[in-house]
Design a protein that fits this description.
Order of helices and strands: HHHHHHHHHHHEEEH
CATH topology of the largest domain: Ribonuclease iii, N-terminal Endonuclease Domain, Chain A
Radius of gyration: 19 Å
Mean pLDDT: 93
Distance between the termini: 35 Å
Number of strands: 3
CATH superfamily of the largest domain: Ribonuclease III domain
Low-confidence stretches: none
CATH architecture of the largest domain: Orthogonal Bundle
Oligomer: single chain
Helix content: 55-70%
Shape: flat
Structural class: mainly alpha
Number of helices: 12
Strand order of the largest sheet: 1-2-3
Largest sheet: 3 strands, antiparallel
Number of domains: 2
CATH class of the largest domain: Mainly Alpha
């Protein structure tokens, strides 16, 4: 998918600059994309909220909140950012790239938010909302069909208990990276069997990812 054209190329350059790139000066941007990420996060939340509010007029607040959380979760945003080719265009240090930075869902999700913030500044809210309608909002059908909006840990517990199995347990396998940017990997087990594995920027996110993988195993069998 082709990226929208920008009037202000400096905004685009900044949106595509990871903080690690500043150390090696392989970007013309003076700052990283973190401030644009902060802005883009708000644009993303408002546009997604309005979309869901209009699309599902009969659903209560709690359901809409669950839909939104599933739609803007890191994994989904990372997938969309990959489809846009943001990982390939992102300026980052050689070290960050060597450790898989261009395919890291956390970095990709942050970059997408920064891109939305830049697009908002460059062309306004409607342009950002239009892009999201093309690249993100169509994912809601799969989310609802597969019940991905449910809290994965709670849903997994419901599934395994209905099958007569023990309550799932979670274990942190690895913690990688500096304190401000850790990546956790967690496994979830039922009895003595590992049934899921997931990674995330916090233990909670990693547990949710592991639970989602386990849910797929049980619901597809």
């Amino acid at each position: 998918m082709k990226l929208p054209s920008f009037n202000n190329q400096e905004l685009l350059e900044t949106a595509l600059t990871h903080r690690s790139a500043l150390n090696e000066k392989n970007t013309t941007a003076a700052v990283s994309n973190e401030r644009l990420e902060f802005l883009g996060d708000a644009v993303l939340e408002l546009a997604t909220t309005r979309f869901l509010y209009d699309r599902y007029p009969e659903d209560p607040e709690g359901t809409l909140t669950a839909y939104r959380s599933a739609l803007v979760k890191t994994v989904t945003l990372g997938k969309v950012a990959t489809e846009l080719g943001l990982g390939e265009k992102l300026h980052m240090s050689k070290g960050e790239e060597a450790t898989g930075g261009r395919s890291n869902n956390g970095i990709l999700a942050d970059t997408l938010e920064a891109f939305l913030g830049a697009l908002y500044l460059d062309q306004g809210f409607d342009a950002a909302a239009k892009l999201l309608a093309e690249i993100l909002f169509p994912h809601i059908d799969e989310i609802i069909e597969k019940k991905l909006y449910k809290d994965a840990k709670s849903y997994l517990q419901e599934v395994v208990q209905a099958l007569g199995f023990e309550t799932p347990t979670y274990e942190v396998i690895t913690e990688v990276g500096p304190d401000h940017d850790k990546e956790f990997t967690v496994t979830v087990s039922v009895g003595n069997s590992v049934v899921g594995r997931g990674s995330g920027k916090s233990k909670q996110h990693a547990q949710q990812a592991a639970a989602r993988e386990a849910v797929k195993k049980y619901t597809q069998e």
